[in-house]
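We examine the record.

___
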Amino acid sequence: MTTIATEKGRKDGENDMKTPPIVSLKDWEAAREQLLVKEKALTRARDALAAERRRMPWMAVDKKYEFDGPQGKVSLLDLFEGRRQLIIYRAFFEPGVHGWPEHACIGCSLGADQVAHLAHLNARDTTLVYASRAPQADIARLKARMGWEIPWYTITDSFDADFGVDEWHGHNAFIRNGERVFRTYFINSRGDEAMGTTWSYLDMTALGRQEMWEDSPEGYPQTRPYKWWNWHESYVPAAAPDPKWVEVSDAGEAAFRKRDAEAPKPA
């Protein structure tokens, strides 16, 4: 091990930090290749877990829930904004929460800061919203202060207690069939730490990323990977993929396949 004095250690007289060995480029790359085997296994395991989520049974939501929104009263069905899937994150912003009334919960606020641009999620027929018990006027003030554009609603009934988020944060996923709504999955506690990317949200939904490589039940909507991507201001519902982007991404995929085929096999 190599010893390096940290800035804090130098100031506070603490023990020096024991670091890993310093090696050559060749040895560093060899060490990375060893770890990469485990990382790829983790990726495959994560994909397999998402495939199991897509086979989870659905729970019918027959109770009528009502929220306050910027334009007044709305139902759970309204929160879908016409899309097929909905993810609701229960954020703690209300009297009694640390930070009130200037701030929401520190952890929930960190999560809000890492939410990806919602246009990409919306392009996969999925809506993300936040819900708290704070009045809409306070939510609007908080969003303006923090620069958040996430749709954010006020819980007015037992929704939080009924879906396991009355005392702790969490993400609930729903799907609709016409006007019927079903609960499909729930992530909370440390699982919330990984949320924020377009992929983390899609991987918790009933339909997944909706790409052809995924292991999904028969009949699920799927398109070629990469092709549906777009600049966030350029998505047009039901529009065909940009042909130039299809050409570019096809070339990239071919290059990756060629590289992997020519890579030396481990001994």
User: Anything to note?
Assistant: Residues 25-53 form the longest helix (29 residues).
